[in-house]
Each structure stands twice: as structure tokens, then as C-alpha cells.
Amino acid sequence: SAALTDPYTRMWGYSAIGKQQDTASVAFLIDALNNETDWRVKVNIINALGNYKIDHNSPLIYSSLTALLEQGVNDQNTHVSIASWQAVGKLYAGGSTGNLTAWKIQQDFQFFIASSKATEGFVKAEAIKAYAKIFRDEVKQSLNFILSACEAMMCWSSSPLYTGMKIFITSERCIPGLK
């Protein structure tokens, strides 16, 4: 059918499913996200998933976050990655930070930030914002360190700034024991 090949029809169809807030459709949306090839449709599916109010003790939260983190970390399209990290922050904000789901978010975030894979700065910034929204005060010190390192890398050609950041990063105040 022509309607199934039209990305605009699929985009708005998935958005409508998300508006219904019927958690029975979450598995369908995750499957659609994993099989979709058009980035515009993916963004609409991701936004639909991010708008759900899923109980943080439900198995759906883990499967939803796993699908969103997969897109946030691995999708080559900047729009898809940014939407994924935003949805992760919305979906899990206020959740418990001492369980397996939170541990998975932390692991994926740390892998993503430490990755040498070329990534748009906007995507990493969205990942940092989602991480901060979820873990708040627990990660404030490590986020300040990441921010400082990112600022130094953005101004790499500025010799005094690079020297100052190198001194800061290797100081005992920043990371005890690192020399």
C-alpha cells in the first residue's frame, strides 16, 4: 500500500500511537524503531517512546531504555541520536539510581563519552544533559570534569588554556591519585 511507503504517514501514525499512552504499544514501537530506516520516522517513534509514563519497576522501562540507548549511541544520524538521549532523560528522570536499569544507563553513557568514535558535539551535549537529569547530584563532580575537558578540547589551539587544563586535570583536586 502507498500509505506504508510514505514516511509522513508513518511519522504521524507513530506519533498518534504515542499520544494514546497505552503501554501495550511500547513493544510495537520498539520493534518499529529497530526496523525503521527513515531518520524522520525514527525521531517520531523515539519522541513517542520518550513521552510514555512507564512505571520504573516495569520490565518495559528496561526494554525502552535499551532501545533508546542503542539509537543514541549507535545511530549515525545526529537528529536520531539527539532525540534518543532526550527521550532517555525524560523517560527515566526521577527513577531510582541504585538498580540494574540505572547501572545500564551509566555504563552506556560512560562508553559513549569515552568513545573515540567521531560524534557531533551536540549529541554528546545531549547525552550529558540526560545523564545529569537522571543522576543529578550523584554525578556533579564527574560532569564538571567532563565539561572542563570538553572546553579544553574545543579551544585546543589556545596554548595557555591547554596548559591550564592539563594542570587542572592532573591535579589532586580533580582526580585524586592521577599524575
Quickly describe the structure.
71% of the residues lie in helices and 0% in strands. The chain is mainly α and 179 residues long. Helix 2 packs parallel to helix 4 and helix 6 packs parallel to helix 8.
Oligomer: single chain
Mean pLDDT: 80
Judged by helices, strands and strand pairing, the structural class is mainly alpha
Radius of gyration (CA) equals 19 Å
**Helical content (DSSP H or I, runs of 4+):** over 70%
Tell me the overall shape.
globular
Describe the structure.
This protein has 179 residues and is mainly alpha-helical. Helices cover 71% and strands 0% of the residues. It is built from ten helices and no strands. Helix 3 packs parallel to helix 5 (59-74), helix 6 runs parallel beside helix 8 and helix 7 (100-114) runs antiparallel to helix 8 (121-135). The longest helix is centred in the middle third of the chain and has 16 residues, at 59-74. The model is unreliable at 174-179 (pLDDT under 50).
